[in-house]
Structures are given as C-alpha cells and as structure tokens.
Amino acid sequence: MKRRWRPAGAALFSGLVLVLASAGAGAKDFNPAAWGAKADGVTKDTQAIQSAIDAAAKAGGGNRVVLAGGTYLSGSVFVKSGVTLYVGKGATLLGSQDIADYPVMPTRIAGIEMRWPAALVNIANEKNAAIEGEGTIDGDGKVFWDSYWTLRKAYEPRGLRWASDYDAQRPRLVQVFRSSHAKVGGGLLLRRAGFWTVHICYSEDVTVEDVTIRNNEGGRGPSTDGIDIDSSKRVLVQRADIAVNDDALCLKAGRDSDGQRVARPTEDVVIRDSVIRDAAAGVTFGSETAGGFRNIEAYNLTVVGNVPVGILFKSAHTRGGFGENLRIHDITMTDIPVVLRVTMNWNPSYSYAQIPADIKDVPPVWKVLATPVPRDKGMAHFHDVKIWNIRATGATTAFEVDAYKEAPLERFSLSRLEIQAKQGGYIHDAKDWRFEDTKLTLGSPVGIEDAAAVKGLPASAVHVRPAPPKADPMKKSFEEQDKT
C-alpha cells in the first residue's frame, strides 16, 4: 500500500498531550521571590529564577515557576524537564545588556555548530518543558544590535562580511535545543531580541503557538528572525503575529560543509494561521539548506505591511541539501513587492567565505566556514513543491525565480493563483513546472499561458493546464483528503 504523508500537526498532538498531562493534581507553583527575586527591573534576578526552576524540577513533573507582576532583570535561565516557566500578565522578563550574563555553550548558529552565548530563556537537553504566559519576554537587544553593526563596519572593508554574523555574538531570546515535547506560547509577547527570537534546533515534538513578536522597537535589529526551525522534526507553529527585521517564519537545516556533516533535515512541520506584518520575507526556506527539508506545510498566512517577499527559497552553490514534498497554500498578500522568489545564489558576500591572505591566525569557525564544497555536492535540489490558493494584490513582480542549469527546480505545481502585479517577472532553470487555474493581472487580465507575461518559461519546462471543472461540493479535494 502506498504510504500517504500526513501533516506534522497530527503527529504533534500526541507529543503535546505528554506536556500537558504532566501537570497533574499535585502540581505546585514556585515563586522566585522565595529565593530573593526583587522584580524591580534593576536587581538581577537570574539566580533567584534559576533556583526556583531547579526546585520545581526536583519536586517532580508538572510544576510551574510563576513570574507575577513586575520586571525581572535576568541573564540566561534554563527551564528543566517537567517544568513550565510561566510569565504572568503584567510581568516582564527583561534581558540583561551584559553579554557576560549569557554563558557560552555548544549550539548551532546560522548553520554552523559552535560555542555561542545562551539565549535569555533556554530549554536545552530537556523534555516536557514549557515557556508560557500572557506576559512579556524582552531582550532589550539594542546594545547587541549596535555591537554587531560596529563589527560589521570594521569587517566589510577587509572582505569579511561573511564572518561578522558569527563573530558578533549576541543572545537569542528563546532557544529550544536538543529537546523534545516542548512548548512556547500561551499569549506571550516576545520583543527586542538581541538576535533570533525563537530558535528550535535539533529538537522534536515542539509547539509554538499564540505568540506576538515585536523586534522593531527602538530600532531595527539585524538578524532578528521571528521563528527559526532548524534541523528539527514534528514542529507545529500556529497563531503567531510577527514584526521583525529579518525572516519571519524560517526553515533551516545547516550551512555548507558543516551542515552536510551533520546531515539532519527539517521535516514534518506545520506552520499555519499566522500574520506577518514586518519582515524580510513571509515564509522562508534557507539559506541554510544542507540537511534538507521534507514534508513541510505552511498555510493560512496573511502577509501585509513592510515585507519585500511573500514566499522565499534561498540557498547558495556551496550549501547543498534538498527540498521535497513542500506545500504552501492559502496565503493572502497585500502590497508585497515580490510574490515568489527562488534564488540559489543568495547574498554572495555572506554566502561564500574566503579568508584574506594577510590573516595568519585564523579562528576555527572561519576555517569551518571556508571549507570547500565540491560543486556537485553544493547544489541544492528542490523538487515536488506545491503552491496553491495564493491571493496577491499590489505586487511589483509575481515571480523572480532562478537556480542552476545542472540543478533545476523540478516539479513545482502552482494552482489557483490570483496575482495582481506591475510585471510578471521571470522563471529560469525550471523543469516540469505546472500551472493550473492561474491568473496574472498586469494592468489587464492575462493568463499564465501568455509567455510575454513571465520571462523564461520554455514550453519544454512548463506545462499549462486549463482550470478544472467546478468541483463537486460533496467530494473532498485531494488536499483535504490528504490532511485526514
């Protein structure tokens, strides 16, 4: 019998039950005030919060550490198995601006395994742990944004743009690392992250839901991604409201030689029911593609405001990896300049590391970044991608798509698209693309079969099919059947 893939959410629910079931009748709330927390926004409460977490873990599963009203100034804290860190309404967990308050630990950053400061809140090597509440986790990250720009301005004239992101070490807001059955959400406001906001790495059975992310307050922080899902599986993201200065919802799987060494895909992921208001892109695959992507579904997304690209695939000719069985559907875009962009040669000054000859004492991470990748192993291969029910108005360009002739983008199926744009754009290095029931409005309505509308659509590579007959309302669509 042929196996039919089901969305990741179905598998996730069984894991989520384990998290919730642990909170039994004997669960207790622990108040960090009992360990000396002041919640005055001035005194560092790191140790008090951590002591409460440790006591809750020792007392058994299902206990909560509750931050009530007030501002808890803190460095890194680590949520343990069976514990929920609950940031209550009216409470703020405020990140310290002293990088020394974030202990350096093994992790992965932008596709490379390295030592890096811990996040403000961490679930690391744990299970059945949660970070929830209706309060605020605030990274107060501008000091880290400024340190990054200072370093980058010094690096760029030396040809080291690619190294600046790795050398300017900045704390993430929330990290879930090598953990399982974890949850982040419950109404949290996440703001002003020093680096990425929520990073899920090498983890499984993770839910992020009911979060508001606001990073563009008091400036626009570099690389302040919203939610990054990195070489992890069975992840559900839902009901997120995001305004950031980089990728909003991003799938990652390792960079270049180091990512290929690790070879862990991101798979069985559902992203749904979310709003992107400010970001580099609405939903992004890459640029760290080395481990590959498999069985990803993103749907019911609204992309509005200051977002230059709605759907983005990005990689480089040293990344490697793949993308297969990717489903993106039911997305509404308003005034988003580019509806779909696919680039396999993204940001060369960042993507390709070359160490200048005058540098003799080369840091280990630079050597990793500069490790050559043979071209045949460096090409990312995206295939079997379905995109449907996309509604876009006010766009500048419908498609900006290019890859490499030796690694074409294969078997992309696009159906029921309605795009109003100034220009059609281009599609290059495509093989067996299929358009069905798709309309571009470029000043006046045209069909996708109009080759003048979109450049680079050779007949041998792209198949156009007419709109199907009206469906029988009593019969489920293929997509609906596949979700059951």
From TrEMBL:
Protein name, entry field: Glycoside hydrolase family 28 protein
Similarity comment: Belongs to the glycosyl hydrolase 28 family.
Source taxonomy: Bacteria, Pseudomonadati, Pseudomonadota, Betaproteobacteria, Burkholderiales
GO aspect biological process, one term: carbohydrate metabolic process
Biased composition regions of type Basic and acidic residues, renumbered to the chain: 472-484
GO molecular function, one term: polygalacturonase activity
Keywords, alphabetical: Glycosidase, Hydrolase, Signal
UniProt-annotated stretches for the region Disordered: 463-484
Rhamnogalacturonase A/B/Epimerase-like pectate lyase domain segment(s): 35-86
Signal peptide: 1-27
